[in-house]
Amino acid sequence: MAILVTGGAGYIGSHVVYGLVEKKDRVVVLDNLSSGFRDAVAKQATFVFGDVGDVNLVSGLIAEHGIDAIMHFAASTVVPESIARPAAYYANNTVNSLALVDAAIRGGVRHFVFSSTAAVYGNPTSQMVSEEVPTRPVSPYGTSKLMTEMMLRDVASASGLTYAVLRYFNVAGADPFLRTGQSTRAATHLIKVAVQTALGIRDGIEIYGSDYPTPDGTCIRDYIHVCDLVSAHIKALDYLRRGGPSVTLNCGYGHGYSVHEIIAAVKRVSGNDFAAALRPRRAGDAVAVVADSTRLRELLSWTPTFDDLDTIVAHALAWEEKLKLQ
Ligand SMILES: NC(=O)c1ccc[n+]([C@@H]2O[C@H](COP(=O)([O-])OP(=O)(O)OC[C@H]3O[C@@H](n4cnc5c(N)ncnc54)[C@H](O)[C@@H]3O)[C@@H](O)[C@H]2O)c1
Ligand SMILES: O=c1ccn([C@@H]2O[C@H](COP(=O)(O)OP(=O)(O)O[C@H]3O[C@H](CO)[C@@H](O)[C@H](O)[C@H]3O)[C@@H](O)[C@H]2O)c(=O)[nH]1
Fold it and tell me: Which Pfam families does the entry mention (predicted)?
């Protein structure tokens, strides 16, 4: 048995690969390095350079390595970019995912863990979001991911495949041992941008919208430490391998922070003050999205280890300092 990890050279995938090889799983990483890094991949994993949409390559890997499970992280991930370049997002996130799912079914793969997103909910009517809340994405990124969820559901029900759709909320932080972290070029993620500003890598940070209907006027998100996502993936795959039926699970802590609160935390933890300029709203942003993760906690007995904003920020800072020295 071996696991094919697409996008395993990226931010979240590289952390999960470390988690898998630590427990002696055989791992094959497939990544086209469009936003990932070869040296982020644990040396115990087999690395293959290539594209998820390359059906011949994927089919060959499934047969050659005896792949029984796929974890599919590979995607284009920037919400504002998806509004400017929707076709590219549907091509990479939906069309390539269909090719991968199809190759998986043909190759006899048993289980599929899919990186979905809170962006499938769009602007929910209540801040707290369970998996039963209607999905109404407000960006092509969110729609492209929701379409893949739907394909997976239909394809799985017509085959023996079982899947776990993991809807991540906002992922942040880094491996506490600093083996990997978020190295994304020109990152747009709030905590990464704020940490880079605190370290003088950027001149300042912009706050996109301060007139939202929230207590301080800025958007609220549920920030989850990347290592707590690692344990969610490992538990989800164990659950499927034990015969558990397909499932969709929110991955977040159940409490949110505003943009102002995040910036204050980065200033507090780094000990550095920096400029934060108020700007107009950014297209495609939801007001407030916080995970009801009861299902993840109950079904998989998942308990987070790093549910503390200052710890998340401290680990993100430590990784950024390491990158700065390279
Ligand atoms: N970072 C977040 O806050 C967040 C939140 C919700 C969901 N997600 C999802 O998690 C997954 C991983 O995100 P990330 O933050 O690690 O992004 P990332 O950009 O760091 O990782 C994506 C990886 O996929 C690779 N890739 C992209 N397209 C490919 C293709 N066609 N073939 C092969 N490799 C390809 C990239 O080179 C990269 O290594 C994505 O599916 C993303 O939508 C991320
Ligand atoms: O320089 C910045 C960056 C972000 N923000 C705001 O901070 C919040 C969070 O933004 P960001 O970190 O870009 O995350 P999201 O847009 O919420 O999207 C992230 O979280 C989603 C899940 O919720 C994932 O699917 C996406 O891949 C991931 O980019 C939003 O209100 C942004 O407007 C700023 O004000 N200034």
Answer: Epimerase
